[in-house]
Hints:
single chain; mainly beta; seven-stranded mixed sheet
Amino acid sequence: QAQLVESGGGLVQAGGSLRLSCAASGSIFSINAMGWYRQAPGKQRELVAGITSGGSTNYADSVKGRFTISRDNAKNTAYLQMNSLKPEDTAVYYCNVGPRWSPFYGVDYWGKGTLVTVSS
């Protein structure tokens, strides 16, 4: 059974930091290529950051210079380090593995998400 489990969300003041984790298990044998998304209340889900199997990364303009995506292949876990958080970063954050990131997957896998709340 394929499973992605996010953790690390919480309540933080503006300017603070959080590190999100995404642990993969089951038929998700490799998380070396994946993406982090977020969905704020009343808004569509948006891509925050992605990493390819070669290690290339990309970020939404709104988080460039503040967020860093990384992965630990040995632990089959990906991370999103979030610094200088702003109230507009408040959202549920999801990790995703799927055909956008790797040809090994024919369908998208999503975690249940972790809530990040940034207070002003």
